[in-house]
């Protein structure tokens, strides 16, 4: 199977981890030898309720018996998609009332960028250095990391970049700016939180010049930071909200949400301003709705902040210089990329799944399912400390 994986399935890097997966349940993934791996990554922040959560699986199975895809997005009334969009509106500020469902986060970013241009009649987009919003051409255009996009130029014109948390750079947002796009908490950059009311100041600047604020909640959204959406921590409501990953409970989804007035602009002049075949797929929408209900009606979000403190307590080690992020969106920073690589690879051998971040080579990603137990957190931290001790001993 490994040979076929490399021969027939396109790869994203020269050295994939290449675990042969047999099955997954709860906080564990099992390989074909039935070895259990405790999952501290959750499919890169996607498996909000862990693997095979009974409520998500039941929702999928129930919808499978009704119908699968029946028509391109937006034409037929399909209850799972309607109920999902309605549930989002009921749990968001009043100006975020209408949702366009897509197949992935990057597709939702594309729609959000188009909507900002359509609404303002402007072409300028301002993003952040070291930002990551996806890998399609529009999303890549607002990626603030030239090394990853140089080979694919030319990209969208009129995109400029400001430094996250740098208030002096807010002057780059002008009356030529259609939209400012930011991750509420920067992901690939190393789980960088906004500081000193930064997002409020961005919001104020956008209002002053008539630009729309797009917040990318693809990673911090759906309870991962202890609130349903990360922006709730920072007193800043966007004009357009983008989500994905954890919304689907392990199924592929994206969404962008705005006011009805804004979203209706995609209906006309031109018609079909944004279109997708499989967006709002009934099975995926059913899974997403079940995920949202469980996150909002359980105590998982409150537990998330308690679990954050547990990680911080049990990952005290000389080779962990800092733990960035909020809730269960954490990045442990080591002294070097080499140490980070050793930790991630050695921990997999020990039965613990960790992963990298895109642009911060010293960061160890820790984004487990929200359903992870406190006992599992301590167990995983003990594995990390054991590996760090071995690395420290080797280099002493």
From TrEMBL:
Gene Ontology MF, one: transaminase activity
Keywords: Aminotransferase, Pyridoxal phosphate, Transferase
Cofactor(s) this protein cannot do without: pyridoxal 5'-phosphate
Residues spanning the membrane: none
Pfam families noted in UniProt: Aminotran_3
Classification via InterPro entries: Aminotrans_3, Aminotrans_3_PPA_site, Class-III_PLP-dep_AT, PyrdxlP-dep_Trfase, PyrdxlP-dep_Trfase_major, PyrdxlP-dep_Trfase_small
Family indicated by similarity: Belongs to the class-III pyridoxal-phosphate-dependent aminotransferase family.
Record-given protein name: Acetylornithine aminotransferase (ACOAT)
Source organism of this protein record: Xanthomarina gelatinilytica
